Amino acid sequence: MSLMGMKEKIQKFAIPVSVGIAGIMLAGTFAGMGRNSTTTRLREAAKAETTVAKVGSLAVTQRMLDRIVDQQVQQFAMFGMPKPPAEALDNYRLRALDVIKSQQALVASAQKAGITLSDDDIKKGIDEVWEKQLRPQVTKTLSLPETATDKEVDAALAKSGNGATVELLKQQYIDPEAVKIKLYNDKLTKQVADKLTLDSYKVRHILVKWDGKTTTEAAAKAKAEKLLAEVKATPTKFGDIAKASSDDPGSKDKGGLYEWLKDDLKTLVPEFKAALEKLKPGETTTELVRHADPKSYSGFHIIHLDEISKASDEKREKAAQGELTKLVDAAAPGIKLELLAPGLQAAQYVQEASKDPKKIDEKLLGKALAELEKIKPEEDSAGTTPLRKAVIFEQLKQSDKAIAAYQEAIKASGDKVDTRKKIATLLIEKGDKADAIAQLTEAEKLAPPEPDIWFQIGQLYDKAGDKAGMARAIVKNQELTKRQQQQLAAQAAAAAQANKKPGEIQLPGEDKKK
């Protein structure tokens, strides 16, 4: 694997890490390669470090957003989903901002809970990422053993002559902010988990009530103390004593038994819960547990813990994550999001304008266009702004402006079959069929060998009234469809041959299962 390929590998790890290791390691070798000029590369590098939004007190750069977007795109690819077009990336960046907002809400929740991070904590976190995630990839790339020390890695890097060191890789390739978030997450999760009581308790108790009318507190206490003395004298008789003397109708007939109290013991009164959590299996409270509440009941408890059924680690983790989610959701509204880049603001306006599919908010679309106007051509290396304008003009039913924007997009970002189809569709809607056919002719030149694309071109030719063009596109569609079917059949045959047992001969048309 090349060092360039390490970026894709390491992005799969749980800790988000910054891109750039290939540039550090290979700058001397590859600096002059590629289509972009030096000026363009410098401009793109500066753009990547530009602050495009603020989330709480955190200044968010485009590089930070694009790192999250890259991870999302990789996940999409795992499910066979195509890479999003460049003109849609600001929508994905808005999603990335939602992720960052949740992360900052997590940080706020952790800090509110009294959790702090020292410089030493962060350094240890960075070192852990290096040791567990990055160093194995670097040692493999440098053909070093897995057990190679940092000194040995530094020595190998020095031989490459490009100035790279272990510390430089850590600084450039590990995102300290991501490390902080993970540390806050781990500490807050542990704190939440430690406070949860998820074990199930098998408990017996005796309750002696007072109401201040028929029974006074003093009388109830005297009776309870007498019962406690009996329990201490004959612990095995706890159930019998409860049946004879407890004032709790829910457990009296069962010898005071509450079997397997669960789920954080939320139903228990605080005094009962506190006393129970101090007991070990087989123990009984040595003192009376007093509870006084005129709205429910007042009385003295004698509590015996029979047994504890420990909750599984999986249950604890799930419960802790649930509580953590509640904390983050509660903190999120307090995290202010400010968009500073016009492209992001335009994407936000478009999303808000389209919330109600039955009624597009034209004012918000107008604001989106105004934001896109702020983007200078030199700031839009991918040339996506005209395409974004065209889509908005379509939503506003402004066909002429949409067509002009699509034509501008061809100059800005290159000629594409989809752009030509869009223009043709708008021209057909206007009744300008001749110009639509001209656009479709150009689309044919650009069309990839994909049956669906040619089918769509054929449909548009039909709407434009060009029967010859439609027939031509249909023939091409059929040819490509047949070719696909042949390729699939060949792949199936190859797979069947690969699965054939050694020495087995499979005749044409023979059912292998027979």
Automatic annotation (TrEMBL):
Presence of keyword ATP-binding: no
SMART domains according to UniProt: TPR (SM00028)
Annotated TM spans: 12-33
Keyword annotations of the record: Isomerase, Membrane, Rotamase, Transmembrane, Transmembrane helix
GO molecular function list: peptidyl-prolyl cis-trans isomerase activity
PROSITE patterns associated with the record: PPIC_PPIASE_2
A Pfam family matched in the record: Rotamase_3
Presence of keyword Ligase: no
Region (Disordered): 491-514
UniProt superkingdom: Bacteria
Residues in PpiC domain copies: 198-307
PANTHER family, sorted: PEPTIDYL-PROLYL CIS-TRANS ISOMERASE HP_0175-RELATED, PEPTIDYLPROLYL ISOMERASE
Name of the molecule in the record: Parvulin-like peptidyl-prolyl isomerase
Species name: Armatimonas rosea
